[in-house]
Amino acid sequence: MPVYLVGGPVRDVLLGAPTTDLDFVLEGDAPQLASELARELGWHLVVHDRFGTATVSHEDCHIDLVTARQEVYSAPGALPEVSPGTIHDDLARRDFSINTLALPLFQSVPQPIDEHHGIDELGKGLIRTLHPLSFADDPTRMLRAVRYEQRFGFALEIESKAHLRHALASGYMDAVSGDRLRHELERILAEQHPGPALARAIDLGVLKAIHPALIDQTPILSLDSRSSGDNHSSSMLYLAALAYPLSSQDAEGVIQRFNLPGHWAKVVQDTGELRQLVPQFSSATLPNSEICQLLEGRSEEAIAAVSQIGRPGVVSQRLDLYLTELCQVNPILDGDSMLAMGVTEGPLVGRILGKLRTAKLDRLVESEEDERQLVRRILAGREDV
Ligand code: ATP
């Protein structure tokens, strides 16, 4: 069968970089081959008949099989018209030369197909588009370009960079759907080190073209300078760093533009709001119960990000104290103990429990007996609730 190993895995093998996913192109019916493969391996199969693609997967390993196709773009940023094609068409529709390599597996000694100088540019460390209108056809490639550039320590080739700038100046990004942009943002955030690609996307004005308020690299650089070496960075921390400088209105605009799902949207909103609370967290005295009041219900990723983005000091100490200790503090007594002590069933139980928690946070009570005494004082009218 005319099956080719293509793109990422061929590139990664040549670079000596790790690869987990395998991409195959077939000049023929890829979904049918995929279903036979899935049956033989006993793996999970997902077929997208409309696109002639299929994925066979098991745990973290994914095998993508694609029917060779050609693509024609009718307008900048629009989805392409797709029709079956040869391996040559399929390679010519790709984003960058380093992703156009193919290995014909049906040959007894497969020789790489390299019609777009991919091997040469892998050696030179260049990210080059295949034609001048590549970024206009699909502006999401600008996000892909910075991701590959920073992952491999490559450089955007000079003419490609000029084409990118032209596509930006022409406003082509406006035509791209939020879902497609979010997908590529997600790919950047999933990189081992998302910071450099995000900073570069800001530097080139790519993120500004998506939303005009995405222009400040400082929080990202500050997070990078405090992140620990080889560990895989948390995607949400970097999303929060992007959101850190935003006003509430801009945060809402960014959420809409990327069509962010609920959890992401909360990180974005909470980060901006927490930044505005920094002066309160800096005050000379701040009881633990007030720290909790300011932070309760907020996204933990947003709290962690604000702690790491600011300068080390009292603000980050208080935010970290909340995450590591205060958020888990609860009174020993519970609702049943209240009732057993004679508290009338109803909202008063919750109010007393809240009071006990506040007292415990501020270290006014410690033992179970301390808590009982406080409840008794409340019941005797000697303490407000
Ligand atoms: P990675 O590059 O992140 O290690 P990958 O190479 O498998 O993984 P994918 O995003 O899964 O990258 O895309 C698979 C291949 O499809 C790429 O190598 C690229 O050639 C092509 N491709 C993906 N997105 C685009 C696009 N927007 N425009 C053109 N080609 C694309």
Major β-sheet profile:
6 strands, mixed
Question: How does the helix and strand content classify structurally?
Answer: alpha+beta
The low-pLDDT segments are none
Helical run tally: 20
Silhouette: elongated
Mean pLDDT: 93
What does this protein structure show overall?
The chain is an alpha+beta fold and 385 residues long. Helix content is 52%, strand content 11%. It has helices at residues 8-15, 30-41, 87-92, 118-124, 134-137, 140-152, 158-169, 178-189, 194-203, 206-210, 218-226, 235-243, 248-257, 262-281, 288-295, 300-309, 314-324, 335-340, 347-361, 368-379; strands at 3-6, 22-26, 44-48, 53-58, 61-67, 69-72, 81-84, 102-104, 126-127, 155-156. A 6-stranded mixed beta sheet has the order 3-4-5-2-1-8. Strands 6-7 form a two-stranded antiparallel ribbon. It has a two-stranded parallel sheet with strand order 9-10. A hairpin with a 4-residue loop joins strand 3 (44-48) and strand 4. The radius of gyration is 27 Å and the shape is elongated. The protein starts with a strand and ends in a 6-residue tail after the last helix. The model has no long low-confidence stretch (mean pLDDT 93). Bound molecules: adenosine-5'-triphosphate.
